Amino acid sequence: MTAAHTPGAHMAAEIATQPETWARAEQMRAEQALLPARGERVAVIGCGTSWFMAQSYAVLRERAGQGVTDAFAASEAFVDRGYDAVVALTRSGTTSEVLELVGDLTAAGDAPRVVGVIGDPESPLVDLVDDAVLLPFADEQSVVQTRFATTALALFRASLGERLDTAIADAATAVAADLDPELVAAEQTSYLGMGWTVGIAHEAALKMREASQSWTESYPSMEYRHGPISIAAPGRVTWQFGPSPEGLSAQVAATGARFETSDLDPLADLVRAQRVALARALARGLDPDQPRNLTRSVILEP
């Protein structure tokens, strides 16, 4: 960062460009064709944000009838289960756990095909995988990831036959809408999702932690009532992505907490959550482009 850098400027610009990057990803038919075919058994691996996007993709792919799909943190992956393909999702292409796992796979005999979905076309992972899907137009300068992750998920959704017109229009709405100060000032936020939006909820919580050092949690919506609802209270928010379980909003309201939901496509609602994380960081005098204790890529020394 230069001395003239405005805190959060990169993150703000990258959040704002998501409608355009999603639209571009939707049209990448040749790249989408490199992803695993219908019927293949697939493992999707990533770290941090990429792991959460992998979770969403896995649910969407299975529910689309495309075949068994499992999502793993790269450090905890079990990829010796007869998978036909492994998808490695990484913005930098330099994350140690991803490189180690892919290197082991490609060195093994009779290994599954490995597809890399990568932001940096110059990264070492490009030469390790069998097929590389490159998204350099969605790569970022901010350490805190926003558009690369959502653009990758937009690409995955399009590859499964989804039309993204509504999601892209909703993202434009999320970028332009006024933010409710109550969401920015909340003492604590719990993010919830069901099905493919569980990964979205985990990612929203991570964004708030990374950008603003805030207390956030995330759960499958039905699990929230099995203990975590005990922290709901006035001045706190429970944020649901997509439809909520029957009766949950009333239960949260009874605690005095705010139950936040939206009619936006859940991926577009994540854009709104990103903007809240950015606004909270700036309100606290923090720079989410260079957050505490974090770097663009986790590279571990041998």
TrEMBL record:
InterPro entries hit by this protein: GlmS/AgaS_SIS, GlmS/FrlB_SIS, SIS_dom, SIS_dom_sf
PROSITE patterns named in the record: SIS
SIS domain segment(s): 30-174
Residues annotated as transmembrane: none
Species per Swiss-Prot/TrEMBL record: Leucobacter iarius
Keywords assigned by UniProt, alphabetized: Repeat
Protein name: SIS domain-containing protein
The keyword Repeat appears for this protein: yes
Domain of life: Bacteria
